[in-house]
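Researcher: Next sequence.
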Amino acid sequence: MASFPLGKITAQTRTKQRRRFECAMNRTLQELRDIAPFDTGELEQSGAFTRRFNTPSKFGREITFSAEHAVYLDEGTKPHKISVRTARVLANALTGQFFGTEVDHPGSVIHQGWFTDNVGPIFLKHLDACG
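Model: Next structure:
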């Protein structure tokens, strides 16, 4: 989430700052979608503005990636078991390998921080560009 304190500034300056902020947030969301780890496209498509607030003293927006696996990609995972839900066995559709009904996943840190480590610097870069 990002916000801008408005304080006691003129209406014209306030409008300019809001436009600059909106520009930076729109560009930030698009860049985060562009760098999102891609498999099915579900993560990229789930990125959206989920909250907007606008008070006399500040305004802001919140970017959320709502795909079920987004948090696991950002925080990484510890070793865990994966078991079948609807199929009879686990298989790799690309290679045709079958693994049985349960496998030990080694955990993953491959995409760790793709959102939390990037959102601040990306927003600031676009805020400068939108200035």
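Model: The first strand starts at residue 2 and ends at 5. The radius of gyration is 20 Å.
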